[in-house]
Amino acid sequence: MKITVLGSLESDDPKSYDVVVDQVASALRKHKHRVSIFGVHDDLRKLVSGFSRRKPDLVFNLAETFGDSLNGDSGVAAVLDLLGIHYTGGGPGELYLRQDKGLAKKVLAFDGVQYPHFAIFGKDADLEAAGKLRMPLFVKPLTADASIGIDGESLVRDAISLMKRVVMIHEKVGDSALVEEYIEGREFYIGVLGNREPVAFPPVEMDFSGLPEGLPRVAGTKAKWKKNSVEYKGTKSVLADVPDELRAKLQKAALDAYRALRVRDYGRVDLRLTETGEIYVIEVNASCYLEENSEFAMGAKAMGIEFPELTQRIVDLAVERYAI
């Protein structure tokens, strides 16, 4: 097939896209596809004209932003729909649900999927609403992803700390704040692949054992991106060592959440497990990060699906949806 891999540029530099773009392109070429790479930053006309020239059979959509908008991926998907272009991953609706974590939780509630109790605080919100929640609380941006605005101070244990953290998110991140009851326990990531009959990968666990005593067990910005930080060096993703019965329960919770939010082609579900065995869905990531060392790829590999085959399976799912 003639496939264009679409990635978000961090600037006008045509090479300022994420490493995952080259990885996916290389993997697709191993399956004999004719692959081109197309990066966009904030130029809508360039986005439209670029596809008019390329005329791909399919777009492998890895766009996560558009210009300064961290939530631009849903807009990019909407443009692709309007242009009648076939593409992998979530549509604008699925991606919007992924972004608005509060709305996503309300949809999960309809299907009986368990998640932490929460409240949303816009810039004019009354902080008294948090009185219905039990401390400690975890505060994060409502729509930003990639752990933006999340660090050790996201975990708060009193009203003053809560107020300061909410204000910080309003002022520095420019987003509403999602405040939810903190679930103490193990953290798991489960990749899911498929549409009509989605399959859950083996669970991957975030190992916090390398963190110094006293640091919150959370995967914040430093743990994910700042390689010289204590948080980055003290955490790692590993294949989870869990009994078969628990593995099945975790996978079922992930599949329930995946179906409830109508995730398309592939995604990752983040879960927490308490000491009493309760499973909470923390977040559902439609069209999750696909880098070859990501938790999603790690789970796929545990099922015997190497990265080139994984990208091909995503292509096959999109082809089946569109009946190309």
Brief overview:
The chain has helices spanning about 20-30, 45-55, 70-80, 90-100, 100-110, 160-175, 220-225, 230-235, 245-260, 295-300, 305-320; strands at about 1-10, 35-40, 60, 120, 135-140, 155, 175-180, 185-195, 200, 205, 235-240, 265-275, 280-285.
Blueprint (SSEs and pairs):
Elements: E1 2-8, H1 19-29, E2 34-40, H2 44-54, E3 58-62, H3 72-82, H4 92-99, H5 101-110, E4 118-121, E5 137-141, E6 155-156, H6 159-173, E7 177-181, E8 186-193, E9 199-200, E10 204-207, H7 221-225, H8 230-233, E11 236-239, H9 244-260, E12 266-273, E13 279-286, H10 295-302, H11 307-322
Parallel strand pairs: 1-2, 1-3
Antiparallel strand pairs: 4-7, 5-6, 5-7, 8-9, 8-10, 8-12, 10-11, 12-13
Helix pairs in contact: 1-11, 3-4
Task: Write up what this structure looks like.
This protein has helices at residues 19-29, 44-54, 72-82, 92-99, 101-110, 159-173, 221-225, 230-233, 244-260, 295-302, 307-322, and strands spanning 2-8, 34-40, 58-62, 118-121, 137-141, 155-156, 177-181, 186-193, 199-200, 204-207, 236-239, 266-273, 279-286. It is globular, with a radius of gyration of 20 Å. Helix 1 packs across helix 11 and helix 3 runs antiparallel to helix 4. The strands form three sheets. Strands 8, 9, 10, 11, 12 and 13 form a six-stranded antiparallel β-sheet that branches. It has a four-stranded antiparallel β-sheet with strand order 4-7-5-6, covered by helices on one side. Strands 2-1-3 form a three-stranded parallel β-sheet, with helices on both faces. Helix content is 36%, strand content 21%. It starts with a strand and ends with a helix. The chain folds into three domains: 2-90, 3-Layer(aba) Sandwich (Rossmann fold), CATH 3.40.50; 117-181, ATP-grasp fold, A domain (Dna Ligase, domain 1, 2-Layer Sandwich); 184-322, D-amino Acid Aminotransferase, Chain A, domain 1. With 324 residues, the protein is α+β, with helices and mostly antiparallel strands.
